[in-house]
UniProtKB/TrEMBL annotation:
Residues 32-269 form the Dienelactone hydrolase domain. GO terms for molecular function: hydrolase activity. This is Dienelactone hydrolase domain-containing protein. The lineage of its organism: Eukaryota, Fungi, Dikarya, Ascomycota, Pezizomycotina. InterPro entries: AB_hydrolase_fold (IPR029058), Dienelactn_hydro (IPR002925). It comes from Coleophoma cylindrospora.
């Protein structure tokens, strides 16, 4: 059994995207929430974003939520960190893009490792499963109780990716996880009973080929549960949310990962 597939400095890397979110902020259940609605306001197909360590206010997350709303989904992005997400400054300070890493000195790399080592462990302890999962479950229950809500799905990134997988154990109607971290294999996948889609980067340092193969083996046994696993060539951890738009290949991967989720939810939330 492979457990505790963890986090590294790549969880703290990426690019901030251009654009202005157009949704609104309201209280939903017990959590502050960014909400982006489709043009017709329908809640028939509802998607809950389970965020990465940078949280619900991260502009990339809100811009992507707006895109899902444009595609016809009613989208909620709850503050599951309760005001304690990691600061956006880490995106630029902790780890540069892959193309820049080749020129980094050993001293610079050591500094990055030290920052991650002092930042992530206490944060992960504070937001461990025993605390975070009940918050997520309660939020899903609150959303299901909103008048007009139809089927509900979750999309998760990195830290939130694992919780989206866990939600596919039965809490939601369909789930999508992009480059999840901290997953336990096979444990987190054995309980999957709802349609699950996965988007993984070929060069994700947190999910090596052996672990991905183990995930595929577990899901292959679930012949009664719709599932898919797509591997994106030359993409690193975080690519679906924090990739570099100036790179044609990275932008294409982000667009395709978005389309993967939209198509999945159109199929299984209808």
């Amino acid at each position: 059994m492979s457990t505790g597939v963890g986090m590294s400095s790549c969880c703290l890397s990426g690019a901030i995207h251009e654009g202005t979110p157009v949704g609104k902020v309201e209280k939903c259940g017990e959590l502050n929430t960014y909400i982006s609605a489709p043009a017709d306001g329908s809640k028939a197909k509802t998607v809950i974003f389970l965020v990465d360590i940078f949280g619900w206010e991260f502009k990339n997350t809100r811009l992507l939520a707006d895109n899902y709303a444009k595609a016809g989904f009613y989208v909620y992005v709850p503050d599951v960190h309760q005001g304690d997400s990691l600061p956006i400054e880490f995106l630029q300070a902790v780890e540069p893009p892959l193309k820049a890493q080749a020129t980094m000195s050993l001293v610079d790399k050591a500094k990055n490792t030290a920052v991650v080592g002092t930042t992530l462990p206490p944060w992960l302890l504070k937001h461990r499963e025993a605390i975070s999962r009940p918050l997520i479950d309660d939020f899903i229950t609150a959303v299901r109780g909103i008048p007009g809500t139809g089927k509900v799905g979750t999309i998760g990134f990195c830290w939130g990716g694992r919780y989206s997988i866990l939600c596919a154990h039965g809490q939601v109607d369909a789930a999508y996880a992009c480059h999840p971290s901290l997953v336990a294999v096979p444990g987190d996948f054995e309980g999957v009973s709802k349609p699950l889609s996965l988007a993984l980067g070929e060069k994700d340092s947190l999910l090596d080929a052996k672990t991905v193969g183990q995930i595929q083996d577990v899901l292959a046994q679930k012949t009664e549960v719709p599932h898919e696993l797509r591997i994106y060539e030359d993409q690193v951890h975080g690519f679906a949310l924090r990739g570099d738009w100036s790179s044609e290949k990275d932008k294409k991967a982000m667009d395709e990962a978005e389309a993967q989720g939209v198509e999945w939810f159109r199929k299984y939330l209808s």
